Fold this protein.
Amino acid sequence: MSAASAFSPQVSLPPELYRQAVEEADLAISITDRHANILYANAAFTRVTGYQPEQVIGHNESMLSHRTTPREVYQELWTRLAAGQPWNGRLLNRRQDGSVYLAEVSITPVHAPDGSVSHYLGMHRDVTTLRQLECMVNNQKQLIASVLDAAPMVFALLDGNGGLMLSNQAYHSMARELSNDNPAHALMDTLCPDWRAQLASDPAHCTFTDQEARLDRPGGAPRWYTCSAQLIRLSNEAVDGFFCAQNAVGLLLTCTDITALRAEQERARTAALKAILADEERVASIRESLSAALFRLEEPMNVIFSAVNLLRRRDPASASMLEDALDASRVHLDALREVIPPRGPETMSNVNLNEILRDVLDIVTPSLLANGVVVDWLPAPTLPTMYGRSVQLRILFKALIDNAIEAMSGKGWARRELTLKTRQRDDCIVITVADRGPGMSPDCELRAFEPFFTTKRGGGRHLGTGLSRAYQVATDHGGYIDLGENPGGGCLVTVEFRLDGDPV
Ligand code: FAD
C-alpha cells in the first residue's frame, strides 16, 4: 500500500478547508517540487522570512540559506529525502531583509499515487530565541560548574532518591582519595543514619549545619570534614507534573576538609593528655612512695611499741622515755600522712574504650618507636560506651602497655610485637594486651597486683605500683584484670568491664 493511499480521513473534508487550514497555520509552510522549487508558501512563511509569496514561488528553497550551514547537513537532509523519509533539523536562514535566524525545519516527502515522491512539504519556525535561551542556560551551567570546580569546598547535590545530580572537582578528588565512589552517601550515613528512608518523605529531617564527620580510608589516616546539608527546591522534570507542578527536593551537601586542623587539634589534645597523665602519675608516685615509707616506718615502731610494753615493768623510766619518743614519732607520722596528696576528683562520663586506647597509643608512640615495638591494633568496629573516669582508665592501659614495652625491651630480645584488641562480649567489654616478651612466672602472676611488688631493678624508677594502681582503677569501674600466658609466647593481660558498671 502506498503512503498516498494510506491517507484515509475518517470524515471527508472539503479540499478548500485543508488549504485554508494550511494558509492560516502559525508555522511557515511551503510545498515544493522534487527539486525543492517552491510552489506554495503560506502567510506564516511570509511572517517568518519576510518574503511575499510572489517573491519565492518558482525559486529554490536554497534562497533562504544563509550559506553558513555545513554541506554535510544538506547532504544528510537530501540523503533522507532521497530515501523517501522525512528530515528534521536546524538550518541557518536569511530573511528578506538580510537578518539571520535559526530555523527548526521539518521536511516530509509527499508521495504520488504510484508511490514515488512528487513533492516536499516544508515546515519551519524561528527558534533563534529558544537557541539563545538554550545557550544562556548552557553558559549558566558552565559558569556554575567552573565556580563550583574552583571552590575548595566539596559540593554534592542529591536528588530525592539519593542519586548524585551535581558535584564538583573537589568531590571527585575526595572520592578518589577515599577510594569511595559515593562519599556523599558515606557522609550522610555517618551524620544522619536514617536519611535514605527519610529523604523522600521528610526531607527536612536530613538537614544539618556544620557537623563534623570522619571518613576512614583504606590504608591511610582518616579524613575529617565539616558538613552541612540543606534542601533545594527543584522544578519537577517529569512531564506528568506539567500542569500540577509538584516541586522536587534536592539535598545540597557542602563539606570542608578539616583534616589538617583536626590533626593539629589532636596533637594539642594528645600533648595535653600526656601532661595530665604525667602529672597524675607523678602525684600517684609521691602518694605511693609516702604510703610505702609510712608502711615501712610503722613496722619498726610496732616492734618498739612491743619492746616498751615489756620494758614498762623492768625499767619504767626508760619505758616512759621511749613512750614519749614513740608518741613524738607518731605525731610526725600523722603529719606525714596528712601531706599525702589525695586522689584528684574525676567526674564520670560516657567513655569509648577504643578512643581511650587510641589516645594511650598516641601517648606511648615515642616509647614504642624507641624500643622498636610493632603494634597490632585491632579495635572492635563498633564498641558501646561505658560509664567511667577517662583519665584513670588511660592510666590503667598506659600502665599495661608500659609494662609490655618494658618486658620486650631487654637487650637482644627479638620478638617485639604488641597486640591490642577490643571486643564486646554480651554485656561486657573485653580488652586484651598481648606482648611477646618473656612472660610472667607463676609466682610473679600471683603477686603482681601487690603494692610495691616489682621484679625490676631500676634505681628507684620502679616502685612496683603500676599494676596495683591499674588493678585499683579496674575494680573502681567494676572490672577486673587477669594475667595469663600469651599462646604465642609472652604475657596476655585481659581487662573486662560490664557495660552497666556492675562488678563483673
Ligand atoms: P544545493 O546545490 O542545493 O545542494 C547541496 C547538496 O544537497 C548537494 O551537494 C546535493 O548532493 C544535495 N541535493 C540538492 N538538491 C538535491 C536533490 N533535489 N536531490 C538530491 N540531492 C540534492 N535549505 C535551507 O538552507 N533553508 C531552508 O529553509 C530550506 N528549506 C527546505 C525546504 C524543503 C521542502 C526542501 C525540499 C529543501 C529545503 N532546503 C532548505 C534545502 C535547499 O533546497 C538546499 O538544498 C540547500 O539550501 C542547499 O543549497 P545549496 O545551493 O547550497 O546547495
